[in-house]
Amino acid sequence: MAKEITAVASYDAKDIQVLEGLEAVRRRPGMYVGGTDAKALHHLIYEVVDNSIDEALAGTCDRIEVIIHPDSSVTVNDNGRGIPVDIHPQTKKPALEVVMTTLHAGGKFGGGSYKVSGGLHGVGVSAVNALSEWLAVEVVRNGKIHHQRYDRGYPVAPVKAVGKAGKGETGTRITFKYDPQIFQGEVSYRFDTLVQRFREMAFVTRGVTIFFRDERSEREMTFYFEGGITSFVRYLNRNRAVLHPVVHAEKQMDGVIIDAAIQFTDAFAESVYSFANTINTVDGGTHLTGLRSAITRTINDYARRSSLLKDSDPNFSGDDTREGLTAIVSIKHPDPQFESQTKVKLMNAEVQTFTQQVVNEAFSRFLEENPSAGKAIVQKCLTSARARDAARRARDLVIRKSALESLTLPGKLADCSERDPNKTELYIVEGDSAGGSAKQGRDRHFQAILPLRGKILNTERARLDKILANNEVKSLISALGTSVGESFDLSGLRYGRIIIMTDADVDGSHIRTLLLTFFFRYMQPLIEEGHLYIAQPPLYRIAYKNSVHYAYSESDRERVIKGLGISPDKVNLSRYKGLGEMNPQQLWETTMDPENRTLLQVSIEDAAESDRTFDMLMGAAVPPRRRFIQTHAKEVRNLDV
User: Fold this and answer.
1) What is the per-residue pLDDT for 122?
2) Residues 135, 46 within the same domain
């Protein structure tokens, strides 16, 4: 029998593609801005603002303005030096056009123009240009105003002077409109997301004013922090009881500026964030490692010297010394090495040593000069160590051992038959009534149901040893298979999707918030890796003649009724108070069927702001929560009475 030969595509010289100019960015936007979703859309603004921040770091800019216009175009204006407009010797084009249209072109490679910068690869503003429907740049420099416009990365006309500048006036103004051919679907800029980013930038760039205005909603904010990261720590801890004043350390070593601020509180969670050249390195890196190891080493040394730790006592672990810690480390490096273009992890090995030395020196001096604060910190660590030991023993009773997998799963868990975690999902359901409907309505092949009885413990106000004594939490940890806390292991996750499904009322919202608090504090990688979701059950059942429709919001209800072409009084309208009111078939059709359901994926856009929000909503301090309720009372919808 003759062997069948499958035809393959040719692979000759003619098949090698050379992408000219910025075409590579348009073809592979994920390589440059992380994708084409809302997160990548915001990254366009960050790239342009980062250039202005670099001017501030160079000491040549103290005001940055960001404006979102009604058509979603964005203007970023600074009073820096202005991008050079004279002819570039290699390309024979104006330097402005080279910077805007050529990848890896900029003033940050030679070291003469910028000592430190966040825009390191020279692709930032040119990538924004490539991914914009149009972009206009205006440069004020050498007494003139220069202008050039681009369409999808290509210059429409040469750089030209369009007016005279005021005496001593310099700066760059860039206005761009993202390209809907690249960023498709319903993507838009979020005011709150940008506010969080600009607040962080202002904290870590001491002395710069960032003005942000959204003309779509007429909202605006201005940020200026003379105190830098010390102000940042105070901001994060403003709802917490602190054990001592902020400890600040700042020093330059071999051209690298190390800036750190430390404060311990009575909280149980760790709130530590790292920045490199003003960029939030969300995955940490060598500067964060250096900070943490310095704090642990310094506390252990001080506790031994002060006889607060006995000879027979073991040293504190890193987890012991980080409970209740709020800290920021911000470094400025002339040649930082990041893991990727999105700059989420710092890799410079020498930064770890520098950070350790600077933090150790300043923190040791503070403890020696403030023995009462030192004693309070050590006492906090001792309590944490004892609680951690108790938690370890409690956790051992909860962890699903592989040899006893079927025996240790909680009895109320209705498991699925599929064993591949990539194909399975777990619904965490409020109450036995809804749990019964969900168990009957689900697809048993890949959907598991875990009903919770009542409300779980508020994990914001308890240590892990107390949390693990809660039966509902123990059932949840056993079902997930990841363990919890310091022994959390995402590889043990039994379900690819974890779906919180609660009633659309006040109690349901509270239970959902309690669960989100637990996941954020003790299983954060679960959220970061995209495994956590919130189900959206319908609010209304709309029946008319032989047709039944479901509405998931007030506006959705009006849209459905309008689509039927009848007056509202002619439909049979039912409002669901809880999931238990739906029969299994209705629950499947509206909330659990992958073909029809709506799931909201939980993500962490800004860890520092999320941390502060959970602390404010679920922490021990009442006044901040009262202020929040009073401020947002008029925005409440569907409040049960």
Assistant:
1) 37
2) yes
